[in-house]
Specification:
By secondary structure, the protein is α+β, with helices and mostly antiparallel strands. It has helices at residues 55-67, 152-162, and strands at 9-18, 24-29, 42-43, 46-48, 72-77, 82-85, 101-111, 132-138. It has one domain (4-165): Alpha-Beta Complex (Nucleoside Triphosphate Pyrophosphohydrolase), CATH 3.90.79. The protein is built from two helices and eight strands, in the order ββββαββββα. It starts with 8 loop residues before the first strand and ends with a helix.
Length: 166
C-alpha cells in the first residue's frame, strides 16, 4: 500500500439542503469504516463523483440516491474544494485503501417539495441499501457538533459560507 501522504483525495460533492424555515437536512449514518464513534453520526448528503461526471450533476444524483429529493433550487456553491483526511488507522478499510480522504465541492439548495418527498428507507437511482437510518431538519449552526470530528473543519467552512442563506 502507498504511503498515507502519497494517497490522493477522493473527488466528492456535498449538499446543504435548506427548507423554507432555513433549517438543514441531516441524516443519521448507518455506519461504515469512517464513522469511528457513535456520538457524531449525523451528516449532510454527500458522495463520490463518477468518472467523467461534473460536480453539479453529481450533487443532484447523490442527493436523489440518498434521500429521493428532487424538488430543489440551487442557492449557491463554495468556490474552492474542501478537503479532509480520514484517520490513518482506517485508511485500509475505507474506499479499498485508495484515498487518504476526500476533496468535496459543496452546494446549497433550497428544498421546495413537501417533507413526504424525502424517503431515506427506499434509496433511488440504483442504491441497494440506505445510507441513513433517520433524518431531521437542524439549525445550520449546530452541524459541526454533529459530524465526526475529522470532518468538522469542512463543516465549519460550509456553515460559514452558507450562513447567510438561513
Amino acid at each position: 500500500m502507498p504511503r498515507y501522504e502519497d494517497l490522493p483525495y477522493r473527488p466528492c460533492v456535498g449538499v446543504a439542503v435548506l427548507n423554507r424555515d432555513g433549517l438543514v437536512f441531516i441524516g443519521r449514518r448507518l455506519g461504515g469504516p469512517e464513522h469511528v464513534d457513535d456520538d457524531h453520526v449525523w451528516q449532510m448528503p454527500q458522495g463520490g463523483i463518477d468518472d467523467g461526471e461534473d460536480p453539479w450533476p453529481a450533487a443532484l444524483r447523490e442527493l436523489y440516491e440518498e434521500t429521493n429529493i428532487r424538488s430543489v433550487e440551487k442557492l449557491g456553491e463554495i468556490e474552492d474544494w474542501l478537503t479532509y483526511d480520514i484517520p490513518r488507522e482506517i485508511v485500509g478499510q475505507a474506499w479499498k485503501g485508495k484515498y487518504r480522504g476526500q476533496k468535496q465541492k459543496w452546494y446549497a439548495l433550497r428544498f421546495t417539495g413537501p417533507d413526504s418527498e424525502i424517503d431515506i428507507a427506499h434509496p433511488a437511482g440504483g442504491h441497494h441499501k440506505p445510507e441513513f437510518v433517520a433524518w431531521r431538519w437542524e439549525p445550520m449552526k449546530n452541524l459541526p457538533g454533529l459530524i465526526i470530528p475529522f470532518k468538522r473543519p469542512v463543516y465549519d467552512a460550509v456553515v460559514k459560507e452558507f450562513a447567510h442563506l438561513m
